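=== RUN LOG ===
request id: a7f3
mode: sequence -> structure
chains: 1
length: 72
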Amino acid sequence: MPLYPTKYATDGMVNPKMVAFYRARAKGGAALIVLDCPCLDYPRAYTATHKLRIDTDEYVHGLKGCRSIHAA
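=== RESULT ===
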């Protein structure tokens, strides 16, 4: 599944709504899912709180839980 900007992030973090969205796609048979485009250059490139951030461990931690999204 190509990049699809859900705008589901909350203050730059993964949340249950986002996990449910991608989990449904994984159950539907998507072999590879590209998550929402994350901000790599905070604060310069961060334009809204509904976009993912991965510039600190705090934000990366939520994404680590998505690795096993298909298992639930």
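=== NOTES ===
Residues 16-27 form the longest helix (12 residues).
The mean pLDDT is 83.
=== END ===
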